[in-house]
Design goal:
Tyrosyl-Transfer RNA Synthetase; 2 domains; about 325 residues; Rossmann fold; binds tryptophan; three-stranded parallel sheet
């Protein structure tokens, strides 16, 4: 007998990135670039996590500019708004609402052991606000609102994903099946990009200017930063993150950007010196970023297009979010509207 094929429902992915300034090459390699690779296989929602951002004080004009810039960069790095839902977290009011509800199912003790809270409160000792404390609950809500199956996150967010799972399971335990319990999605090609000045630390835009490449750096700036990048005095190009962290970092960047494996990249420098390595990593970085920068400049001028993307994104996200929020509110016992 002839069988009709039922289409397989795609797994859902949700991820977010904060608009805290121009992303680094590390953010591009570790997050933004991978998001695009998931677009066809999964049902993806990607948001600019602008509610999280005000846990640290922001200058309004700059904040608004950073948020638009982040959306522009996501589009410029190739995300297709017809395939993925792209939106600003703040445009979907259900995020803030679910965060409140989930706050009442989360314990102080759980939040107290979050390492990012401890780090951030040490760093911003003059502004240890309640939002910073309950940040992981907002993030849990982001994920649970969409019944996401998978969440691409870096190592620094694993603890937050764990607590999201705990909260989901707790709520499900009380009310029956409300939430999909999400899993982490760890990309196979997720090279960890290190600081150019202190290559045992992660590349970060909050460190010294010369220690990171920003995705909007001009070719001259990129050249200068790599020229100054820390290597060592061993004078041979080997992949050995323990003994030669600086050199290994440059090799990993080349591997990540060319898609070649690290052994092959390393072998191509046999008999060559650090100058050759630096000029190769400079070239491939400039080649990768140039088309993104050109597309970014074009898109940012097209305000109408940007607006249509984030409005459509908020509408699609909002419909999904509302469904989950209503489901939970009914289970909790709220009077229906
Ligand atoms: N907290 C994440 C970060 O700073 C960003 C984020 C917010 C996020 N909500 C999310 C990531 C939901 C994944 C899923 O990197």
């Amino acid at each position: 007998m002839e069988q009709t094929q039922t289409p397989v429902k795609k797994q859902r992915i949700l991820s977010g990135i904060q608009p805290t300034g121009t992303p680094t090459l590390g953010n591009y390699i570790g997050a933004m670039r991978n998001w695009k690779l998931l677009e066809d296989e999964y049902d993806c929602l990607y948001m600019v996590a602008d509610l999280h951002t005000i846990t640290v004080r922001q200058e309004p004009a700059k904040f608004r500019q950073n948020a638009m810039q982040m959306l522009g960069l996501l589009l410029a790095s190739g995300l297709d708004p017809e395939k993925s839902v792209l939106f600003f977290q703040s445009h979907v009011h259900q995020h803030a609402e679910l965060a409140w509800l989930l706050n009442c199912y989360t314990y102080m003790g759980e939040m107290n052991r979050m390492t990012q809270f401890k780090d951030k409160s040490a760093k911003h000792a003059d502004n240890i606000n309640c939002g910073l404390f309950t940040y992981p609950v907002l993030m849990a809500g982001d994920i649970l609102l969409y019944q996401a199956n998978l969440v691409p996150v870096g190592k620094d967010q694993m603890q937050h994903l764990e607590i999201c799972r705990d909260i989901a399971q707790r709520v499900n335990g009380v009310y029956g099946n409300v939430f999909t319990v999400p899993e982490g999605y760890y990309s196979k090609v997720g090279a960890r990009v290190m600081s150019l000045q202190e290559p045992t630390r992660k590349m970060s835009k909050s460190e010294a200017e010369d220690s990171f490449i920003s995705v909007l750096d001009t070719p001259d700036v990129i050249r200068r930063k790599y020229r100054r990048a820390v290597t060592d005095s061993e004078a041979c190009v080997r992949f050995d993150p323990e003994k030669q962290p600086g050199v290994s970092n440059l090799l990993s960047i080349i591997a990540a950007l060319t898609g070649e494996d690290i052994e092959k990249v390393t072998a191509s420098f046999e008999g060559k010196g650090y100058g050759d390595l630096k000029s190769a990593v400079t070239d491939v970085t400039i080649e990768t970023l140039a088309p993104i920068q050109a597309e970014f400049a074009r898109i940012m001028k097209d305000k109408k297009y940007m607006e249509s993307v984030y409005r459509q994104g908020a509408e699609r996200a909002g419909m999904l979010a509302e469904r989950t929020l209503q489901k939970l509110m009914k289970k909790i016992g709220y009077v229906a509207k």
